[in-house]
C-alpha cells in the first residue's frame, strides 16, 4: 500500500517539477521583451526613448487591467478614468495646489492608494451588472472624470491644465525616467503573472467562462473581483502619475476616450487569459501610429478595424495564434481507464457521520409545482439513486441542495444544521460538491486547470501572498497541482492533463467534472446524470469509480436515467414523479414496485 | 425657470427616449445591445445638416435621404457586427463588434465632417421662446414615432412578425417566419428611429460628432431604468431623465449635472438591475 503511495508521490513530484519548468518557459518571451526594452536607450535617440516610456506606462495599466478584462472577462472600457485620477492626484500633490508640496514619488504612492479605492468604486457595478451594462457604466465614469477635471478649475487648472510632476534624480533624465517606467511595468507584469498562475487567476477565468461551476467550487465572485479591482486601480493610477510626468503638462484633453479604447483593445487583440498576447498588443497599438505617420489621425479607426477583425476572425487573439502546443493532434483511440485504487490516495477517509437531509421541500415555478413536498436522506458511505421521468424534479432537487434555488418551504440540513438557501458559493466549504447535467467546463483552460478549480477553497494563501509569490502561495500552488494530477490519474485522464479542455470528447468532460468535484475532498457528491452519453464499458468503469468513492465514506446522490447503473450500485433509491416521491427503498424493492414499473421503468 | 426646465427637459428627454427605443428595437430582433444606437442619433443630425444646409436640398428631400442613409447604416450593422456573432451570443462578442463599428462611424464623421458642432437647419420656423420648434419638435417626433410603432406592431403583419421574433425566436422560425430578413428589417427600422430622433433634435443638439457617445450613454439610461425591451418604460424614463438632467443643469450647473445623472443611474441600477419595468432575470442553472 505504502509502495503505491510512494510511487504516486514520486511520479507526481516529477510531473510537478516539469510543469513548473513549463511555467517558467512561458516567462521566457516576457523576459526577452524586457531585455530588448532595457537596451532601447543605448541604441536609439531621445524620441524613441519617449515612445518606449509611453509604451511601458500603457503596459503598466494594461497589464493590470488584463486581470479584469482578459481573465475575469469584465468589459471595463473606461479605465482612462483611473489614469486621469492618478495623473491629477500625483500632479496636484507634488505641485502643492491644495496641501504643502509632497515629493513626487510619495505623491505617486498616494495616487496608487486613491486609485485602488476608486478602482473598487468603478468596479462595484460589475458585481451586479452584466456585460453591456457594466461596459456603459465604466464609460460613464470615464466621461465624468474628465468633465470634473475640466470644471474644478481651482484645483485642476481646468482647461488650461497643470505642469506635470518632475521626478527627482536619478529619474530626472529621459532614460532615467524610462527605467523608472520600465521597472514599474516589470514589477506589474511579475505580479499579474503570479496572480494569473495562482488559484485566484484560475478562479477569475472560471467566473468568466463557467460562473455556475465557479460558485459550486466555493469561489466568491464579489470578494475576488474586489481584490482584483484594488490591484488594478492602484496600477492604473500609478500609470497615470507617470503619464502626467511624461506629458510634462496635463489638460483634460490628454485623457480622451480613445486612450481607454487603446487599453481595452490591446487586451482583446492580445487574447483573453494570456499575458504575452496583450503585451504584444499594447506594443503594436502604441507603435502603430509611429510607423504610419499619415495614419495617426486615423488611429482610432485602425484600432476599431483591428478589434472587429479579431472578434470576427480570431476570437482568441494573438495568444491563440501563438498557442502551438494545442495544435498537436490528440490520440484518436484513447480510452478512459479510471484507476479506482488511486481513489484511496485522493480521498482521506471521510469523517462525516451525519446525513444530508431534505425535509418537506416545496418549490414552484409560476403555477408549476416542480418539487412538491420531497423528503430525502443521503447517508455517508452510501449511494442514493434519484430516478424518475423527465420533468419530475430531479435536477431541481440538486439545485436546491447546492443552493442555486431557494425552496418556498422545507429545509436542507447536514447533521441538524440548516444550509443557507440560495447561496451556492457556501456549499463547497460545507463539504458538498457536484457535477452538472451539461458539463460546465472552462474550454480555454487546460484539463488540469479545470480540475484545480475544484480545490480553490483548499488553498490557504491570501491574494496578496499570491501576488508577491510568497511561500504560502507557492505551497498552495504545488499542493493543488499535485492533488490535481493525482485526481486526474484516479479518473483515468492524466495523459490529457495539459490539453485544452475544449478539445476533449463529451464523455471525457464528464470525468473531468467528477475529478473537479473530488478535488475539494467532499463529504457529499451530487452527480447529475454522469452516465449520459457514455459507452457501456465507460458506464461500468464509472460505476466502479463511484463505488470506490463511497468506500472512503463519501455520500453520493446519483441522478440517472440508466436503470442498470442505478440498480447495480445504489444502496437506496428514491423515485420521483411530478415533483413528488413515488417510491423509496432498496433497489430490490423499487424494481418490483408496481407504480414505478408502470410509470417509469416499463415492464 | 420651471418653464425652461420643462421645455428643454422634455425636448432632450424625447430624444433620449427615442434612442432608447432604438436600442430596444435592435435588442428585440437579435438579443444584441448595440453601441451604434447613439451613433445613429448623431448621424441623423449630421446627415440632415449635410443634405439641407451644405448641399442645399429641400427639407423633405433631405429628410428622406437622411432616413435612407441611416437605414443603410442599420443594415450594414446587422451584416458586419451582429450576424457573425449571433452564434455565440453567450460570449457577448456583440459588445465588442458593435463598439468597433460605432468607433469607426465616429471617426469617419470626425474626419470627413467636422469635430466641431455644426449648425442644423431650421425646419419649419414656427414658434419662439419656450415654444420654439427646437423644443417642441423632438416631443412631437417622439409622440409620432411611438404612435407609428404602435400602429406597425398592432395592425400590420410585418409588425406582428417583429413581435413574434422578439417573443420567441425559435418558435417564430418553426412557424416559417423569415427570421433573417425580419432581423435586417428591424435593424433598418431601428436606424430610422434613431435617425429620426437625431433629425428632430438637430436644432437642439446641433450636428455634432460628440453627440454619438453622449446619446449612447443618455439613450441607454432610459433603457436600463425602464427595462430592456420595454418601449413604454424607455419613453417614461427618457422624459424623466431629460427633466431631471435639465433641472440639475439649472441648479448645480452643467458639469455636475452629468455627475448627478450618472450617480442616479448607477444607484437605481444597482438597486434594480432589471430596471423599473423590466422582466425578472433568466434562470442560469
Task: Write structural notes for this entry.
The complex is a heterodimer of chains A (603) and B (285). Chain A is of the alpha/beta class and 603 residues long. Helices cover 57% and strands 10% of the residues of chain A. Chain A contains 24 helices and twelve strands. In chain A, the strands form three sheets. A six-stranded mixed β-sheet of chain A has the order 8-9-10-5-11-12, with helices on both faces. In chain A, 52% of the residues are buried. With 285 residues, chain B is mostly helical. Chain B has a single domain (2-119, 130-271), classed as ABC transporter involved in vitamin B12 uptake, BtuC. Chain B is 75% helix and 0% strand. Chain B is built from twelve helices and no strands. In chain B, helix 1 (2-30) packs antiparallel against helix 8 and helix 2 packs parallel to helix 4 (93-112). The radius of gyration of chain B is 18 Å and the shape is globular.
Which key features would you list for this structure?
heterodimer; A: 603 residues; alpha/beta; six-stranded mixed sheet; four-stranded antiparallel sheet; 24 helices; 12 strands; 57% helix; elongated; B: 285 residues; mainly alpha; ABC transporter involved in vitamin B12 uptake, BtuC; 12 helices; 0% strand; globular
Amino acid at each position: 500500500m505504502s509502495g503505491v503511495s510512494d510511487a504516486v508521490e514520486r511520479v507526481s513530484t516529477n510531473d510537478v517539477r516539469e510543469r513548473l519548468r513549463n511555467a517558467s518557459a512561458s516567462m521566457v518571451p516576457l523576459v526577452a521583451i524586457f531585455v530588448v526594452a532595457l537596451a532601447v536607450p543605448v541604441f536609439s535617440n531621445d524620441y524613441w526613448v519617449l515612445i518606449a516610456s509611453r509604451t511601458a506606462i500603457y503596459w503598466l495599466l494594461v497589464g493590470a487591467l488584463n486581470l479584469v478584462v482578459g481573465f475575469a472577462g469584465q468589459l471595463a472600457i473606461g479605465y482612462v478614468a483611473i489614469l486621469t485620477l492618478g495623473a491629477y492626484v500625483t500632479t496636484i500633490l507634488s505641485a502643492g495646489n491644495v496641501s504643502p508640496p509632497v515629493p513626487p514619488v510619495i505623491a505617486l504612492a498616494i495616487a496608487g492608494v486613491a486609485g485602488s479605492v476608486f478602482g473598487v468604486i468603478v468596479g462595484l457595478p460589475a458585481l451586479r451588472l452584466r456585460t453591456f451594462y457594466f461596459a456603459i457604466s465604466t464609460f460613464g465614469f470615464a466621461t465624468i472624470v474628465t468633465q470634473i477635471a475640466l470644471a474644478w478649475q481651482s484645483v485642476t487648472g481646468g482647461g488650461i491644465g497643470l505642469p506635470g510632476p518632475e521626478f527627482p534624480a536619478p529619474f530626472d533624465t529621459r532614460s532615467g525616467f524610462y527605467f523608472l517606467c520600465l521597472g514599474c511595468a516589470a514589477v506589474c507584469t511579475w505580479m499579474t503573472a503570479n496572480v494569473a498562475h495562482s488559484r485566484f487567476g484560475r478562479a477569475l477565468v472560471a467566473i468568466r467562462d463557467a460562473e455556475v461551476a465557479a460558485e459550486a467550487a466555493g469561489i466568491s465572485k464579489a470578494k475576488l473581483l474586489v481584490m482584483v479591482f484594488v490591484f488594478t486601480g492602484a496600477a492604473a493610477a500609478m500609470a497615470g502619475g507617470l503619464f502626467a510626468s511624461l506629458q510634462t503638462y496635463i489638460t483634460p484633453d490628454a485623457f480622451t476616450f480613445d486612450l481607454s479604447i487603446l487599453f481595452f483593445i490591446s487586451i482583446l487583440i492580445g487574447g483573453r487569459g494570456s499575458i504575452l498576447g496583450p503585451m504584444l498588443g499594447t506594443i503594436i497599438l502604441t507603435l502603430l501610429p509611429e510607423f504610419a505617420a499619415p495614419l495617426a489621425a486615423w488611429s482610432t479607426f485602425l484600432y476599431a478595424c483591428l478589434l472587429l477583425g479579431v472578434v470576427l476572425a480570431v476570437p482568441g487573439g494573438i495568444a491563440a495564434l501563438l498557442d502551438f502546443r494545442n495544435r498537436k493532434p490528440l490520440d484518436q483511440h484513447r480510452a478512459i481507464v479510471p484507476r479506482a485504487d488511486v481513489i484511496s490516495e485522493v480521498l482521506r477517509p471521510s469523517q462525516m457521520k451525519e446525513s444530508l437531509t431534505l425535509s418537506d421541500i416545496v418549490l414552484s415555478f409560476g403555477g408549476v409545482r416542480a418539487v412538491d413536498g420531497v423528503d430525502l436522506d443521503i447517508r455517508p458511505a452510501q449511494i442514493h439513486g434519484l430516478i424518475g421521468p423527465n420533468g419530475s424534479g430531479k435536477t431541481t432537487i440538486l439545485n436546491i441542495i447546492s443552493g442555486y434555488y431557494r425552496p418556498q418551504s422545507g429545509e436542507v440540513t447536514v447533521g441538524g444544521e440548516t444550509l443557507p438557501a440560495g447561496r451556492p458559493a457556501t456549499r463547497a466549504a460545507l463539504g458538498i460538491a457536484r457535477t452538472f447535467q451539461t458539463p460546465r467546463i472552462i474550454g480555454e483552460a487546460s484539463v488540469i486547470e479545470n480540475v484545480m478549480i475544484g480545490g480553490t477553497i483548499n488553498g490557504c494563501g491570501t491574494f496578496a501572498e499570491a501576488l508577491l509569490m510568497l511561500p504560502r502561495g507557492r505551497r498552495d500552488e504545488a499542493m493543488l497541482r499535485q492533488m490535481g494530477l493525482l485526481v486526474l490519474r484516479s479518473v483515468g485522464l492524466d495523459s490529457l492533463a495539459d490539453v485544452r479542455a475544449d478539445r476533449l470528447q463529451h464523455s471525457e468532460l464528464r470525468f473531468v467534472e467528477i475529478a473537479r468535484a473530488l478535488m475539494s475532498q467532499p463529504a457529499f457528491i451530487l452527480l447529475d446524470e454522469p452516465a449520459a452519453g457514455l459507452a457501456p464499458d465507460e458506464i461500468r468503469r464509472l460505476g466502479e469509480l463511484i463505488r470506490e468513492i463511497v468506500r472512503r465514506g463519501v455520500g453520493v446522490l446519483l441522478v440517472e436515467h440508466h436503470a442498470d447503473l442505478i440498480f447495480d450500485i445504489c444502496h437506496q433509491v428514491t423515485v420521483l414523479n411530478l415533483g413528488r416521491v413515488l417510491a423509496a427503498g432498496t433497489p430490490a424493492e423499487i424494481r418490483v414496485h408496481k407504480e414505478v414499473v408502470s410509470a417509469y421503468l416499463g415492464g | 425657470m420651471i418653464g425652461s426646465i420643462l421645455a428643454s427637459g422634455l425636448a432632450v428627454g424625447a430624444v433620449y427616449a427615442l434612442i432608447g427605443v432604438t436600442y430596444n428595437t435592435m435588442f428585440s430582433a437579435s438579443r444584441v445591445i448595440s453601441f451604434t444606437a447613439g451613433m445613429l442619433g448623431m448621424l441623423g443630425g449630421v446627415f440632415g445638416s449635410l443634405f439641407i444646409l451644405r448641399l442645399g436640398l429641400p427639407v423633405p428631400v433631405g429628410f428622406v435621404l437622411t432616413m435612407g442613409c441611416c437605414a443603410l447604416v442599420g443594415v450594414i450593422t446587422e451584416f458586419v457586427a451582429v450576424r457573425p456573432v449571433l452564434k455565440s451570443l453567450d460570449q457577448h462578442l456583440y459588445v465588442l463588434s458593435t463598439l468597433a463599428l460605432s468607433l469607426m462611424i465616429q471617426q469617419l464623421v470626425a474626419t470627413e465632417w467636422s469635430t466641431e458642432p455644426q449648425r442644423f437647419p431650421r425646419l419649419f420656423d414656427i414658434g419662439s421662446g419656450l415654444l420654439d420648434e427646437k423644443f417642441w419638435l423632438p416631443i412631437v417626433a417622439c409622440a409620432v414615432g411611438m404612435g407609428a410603432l404602435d400602429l406597425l406592431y398592432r395592425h400590420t403583419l410585418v409588425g406582428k412578425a417583429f413581435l413574434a421574433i422578439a417573443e420567441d425566436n425559435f418558435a417564430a422560425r418553426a412557424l416559417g417566419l423569415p427570421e433573417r430578413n425580419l432581423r435586417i428589417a428591424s435593424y433598418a427600422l431601428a436606424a430610422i428611429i434613431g435617425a429620426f430622433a437625431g433629425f428632430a433634435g438637430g436644432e437642439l443638439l446641433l450636428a455634432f460628432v460628440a453627440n454619438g457617445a453622449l446619446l449612447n450613454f443618455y439613450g441607454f439610461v432610459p433603457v436600463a431604468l425602464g427595462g430592456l425591451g420595454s418601449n413604454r418604460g424607455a419613453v417614461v424614463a427618457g422624459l424623466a431623465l431629460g427633466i431631471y438632467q435639465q433641472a440639475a443643469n439649472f441648479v448645480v450647473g452643467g458639469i455636475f449635472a452629468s455627475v448627478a445623472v450618472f450617480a442616479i443611474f448607477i444607484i437605481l441600477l444597482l438597486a434594480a438591475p432589471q430596471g423599473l419595468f423590466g422582466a425578472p432575470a433568466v434562470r442560469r442553472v
